[in-house]
Amino acid sequence: MTYLTWSNDLAVGNTFIDGDHQKLIDMVNRLHEVMQEGKGKDVLGKVLNNLITYTREHFRREEDLMLRIGYAGRAAHLHEHEKLLQQVVDLQDKFESGAATLSIQVLHFLRDWLVNHIGKSDKALAEATRNTP
Ligand SMILES: [Fe+2]
């Protein structure tokens, strides 16, 4: 069963942002899948690492776009990205050191963050992009 399904509700109407988000959703689903399959720490660690790496790349692309259009909401948006990255890197450290396991709560957190951030912040950015000549 797919954990998080892409739908038009999640579309922000910007081709590259929507494409990135679909890939992020695929990667969250992949993490869910390997957790459900009871894969070992090595596999989980790799999948988590891929997700974090791609998230960084995606955030950078959005941040470049914000700079390009002189986006007024840039500082607040960047803050959301940085806070999330801090949280997941912290989680990764705890996971790698054995101080924490990856739980379904972690996935719920990622899913909720993604859905909220896309629905509010990324939609606002895409809207601003359309309104910038
Ligand atoms: Fe964003």
Overview of the molecule:
Helix 1 packs antiparallel against helix 2 (41-69). By secondary structure, the chain is mainly alpha-helical. Helix content is 77%, strand content 0%. The chain has a single domain, classed as Four Helix Bundle (Hemerythrin (Met), subunit A) (Up-down Bundle). It has helices at residues 15-36, 41-69, 74-97, 104-131. It is built from four helices and no strands. The protein binds fe (ii) ion. Fe (ii) ion (FE2) binds next to helix 3 and helix 4.
Using only CA atoms, what is the Rg? 15 Å
Q: How helical, in percent, are the residues?
A: over 70%
Q: How many discrete domains?
A: 1
What is the global morphology? globular
Précis, in short:
This protein has helices spanning 15-36, 41-69, 74-97, 104-131.
Helix-strand blueprint:
Elements: H1 15-36, H2 41-69, H3 74-97, H4 104-131
Fill in the keyword field for this structure.
133 residues; mainly alpha; binds fe (ii) ion; 77% helix; Four Helix Bundle (Hemerythrin (Met), subunit A)
